[in-house]
Amino acid sequence: MWGMTCIGIRTVPALPVTENIGTTMSNQLGVSFEGRAQALLERRGWRLVARNYQCRGGEIDLIMRDQTGVLVFIEVRARARSDFGDAAQSITLAKRRRLTLAARHYLLRRPAARCRFDVVTFDGRPPVVHWLPDAFRTDDL
């Protein structure tokens, strides 16, 4: 429909010697926070469907089913400092559009009766977790 090809679940290749250490550490932190968000939701009875789902134009950190069967697309964000706002404020309109694009792509092949977008944030040091169910709607875009 949109001329996109899905990459699916991302596999992380071995890092080349010339990899930027800052980017690598940032990616590792992102994976760590995604794992913490996943564990939080699994303790609530949710089931992981996909992690790091990618298609051209967007990526979804976690796709899970809640205990009622609703498919939930989850964006995970972390910020150690609030100089430029908290982690939730870093999810711009452009980012919400990319999440929506990736979700629509996912749903083309796997229709779901009900779905929504949640956000899990980690703010400060030590990080405080916030779960924002139904954080935004596609009709807001």
From TrEMBL:
<dbReference type="InterPro" id="IPR003509">
    <property type="entry name" value="UPF0102_YraN-like"/>
</dbReference>
<dbReference type="GO" id="GO:0003676">
    <property type="term" value="F:nucleic acid binding"/>
</dbReference>
<dbReference type="InterPro" id="IPR011335">
    <property type="entry name" value="Restrct_endonuc-II-like"/>
</dbReference>
<comment type="similarity">
    <text>Belongs to the UPF0102 family.</text>
</comment>
<protein>
    <recommendedName>
        <fullName>UPF0102 protein SAMEA4530655_04926</fullName>
    </recommendedName>
</protein>
<dbReference type="Pfam" id="PF02021">
    <property type="entry name" value="UPF0102"/>
</dbReference>
<dbReference type="InterPro" id="IPR011856">
    <property type="entry name" value="tRNA_endonuc-like_dom_sf"/>
</dbReference>
